[in-house]
């Protein structure tokens, strides 16, 4: 019996999934989303082919973290200049740009290559409860 390898030409139309992040632990959400956009939830999963689906995440501002991570977790950015490091706490990031928290967690769970950067474009994160992708008829799933 031969091993099945998916090809870009034979892939089915990708599905759209909707996840409500209200009260869901960040790490568990990120694992679920990373597996869906990679296609690991399908029997046709092939590591070097993008077999994944699209994911819409709503209520990003209400995602939960455990322990003291709200105060202790920091996100670093670097401008490229001397002394250009900036640190933001998770609490401050949640106020200013709540979508970044989930995007950053999902990005960390993907491989570090060009295919993963392409897969990351299939994640749509929204701070509130509304999203502009109703026409795609997303399938609501729980984490």
Give a nutshell description of this structure.
With 143 residues, the chain is α/β, with parallel strands linked by helices. It has helices at 26-38, 69-72, 90-96, 98-108, 114-119; strands at 16-20, 54-58, 74-78, 85-89, 123-125, 139-141.
Question: Your description of this structure?
Answer:
- With 143 residues, the chain is an alpha/beta fold.
- The protein has a domain at 14-65 and 97-141: Ribosomal Protein L13p, Chain: A (Alpha-Beta Complex), CATH 3.90.1180.
- It is 29% helix and 18% strand.
- The protein has helices at residues 26-38, 69-72, 90-96, 98-108, 114-119; strands at 16-20, 54-58, 74-78, 85-89, 123-125, 139-141.
- The chain has a 4-stranded parallel β-sheet with strand order 5-2-1-6, with helices on one face.
- It is globular and about 55 Å long.
List the helices and strands and how they pair.
Elements (H helix, E strand, L loop, with lengths): L15 E5 L5 H13 L15 E5 L10 H4 L1 E5 L6 E5 H7 L1 H11 L5 H6 L3 E3 L13 E3 L2
Parallel strand pairs: 1-2, 1-6, 2-5
Antiparallel strand pairs: 3-4
Strand content: 15-25%
Molecular shape: globular
The secondary-structure class comes to alpha/beta
Number of strands: 6
User: What proportion of the residues is helical, as a percent range?
Assistant: 25-40%
Largest sheet: 4 strands, parallel
Widest beta sheet: strand line-up = 5-2-1-6
Rg, alpha carbons: 17 Å
Return residue spans where pLDDT drops below 50 for at least 5 consecutive residues: none
Q: Give the CA-CA distance, first to last residue.
A: 35 Å
């Amino acid at each position: 019996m031969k091993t099945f390898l998916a090809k870009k030409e034979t892939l089915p139309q990708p599905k759209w999934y909707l996840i409500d992040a209200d009260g869901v632990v960040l790490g568990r959400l990120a694992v679920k989303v990373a597996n869906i956009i990679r296609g690991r939830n399908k029997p046709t999963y092939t590591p070097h082919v993008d077999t994944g689906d699209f994911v819409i995440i709503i209520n990003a501002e209400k995602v939960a973290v455990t322990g003291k991570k709200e105060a202790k977790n920091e996100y670093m950015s670097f401008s490229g200049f001397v002394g250009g490091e900036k640190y933001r706490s998770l609490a401050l990031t949640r106020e200013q740009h709540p979508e970044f928290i989930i995007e950053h967690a999902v990005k960390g769970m993907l491989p570090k290559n060009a295919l993963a950067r392409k897969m990351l474009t299939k994640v749509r994160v929204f701070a509130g409860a509304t999203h502009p992708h109703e026409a795609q008829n997303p399938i609501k799933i729980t984490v």
